[in-house]
Amino acid sequence: MRVPSEGRGGCSKEPPAKLLRSYRHSLACLLVIGGQVDGRRAVALAFHEAGPLRQGPFVFLDCERQEDLLRAALEAVLTHTDPTSAANPVLAAWGGTLHLDSVEQLGLDTQRLLLCLVHELLSDQAGALRLSVGAASELEQARDEGRFLPALFDGLDKIRFEVDRSIAA
Description:
disordered C terminus; 7 helices; Rossmann fold; alpha/beta
């Protein structure tokens, strides 16, 4: 594992276990960069299991393969329609952690919806959901090239954890 950083590109000199302990009570968005899908998922699960919503569900969604499902789920949650749908991964994760992997693959329309959810979570003092996202590569380049919304990047880049390519579950 490479040394994780704490959002905004700042490098942390703390070991990964200390970073995890430091943020275990936080519901701030977690951004897991690099490595393989299994490694990013393992990091997100470790944060979930150490966090305040550890009794709740951990829901994993691959954005590259399941963008349509995510878009429909976000639309339903944000418009308060179909609040009981069992197929909605956002609602399934409520009270726990929603980990969205390969977030760099999302289209701009889905990114806009995800940004709305991030704003909803920030304004919700009840803390009903922790959002965790994974990306195979740095999102700064995608943001700079106009493929990733700058406001969404800023909303997601609160706790950053960089995974070495060799990490696997």
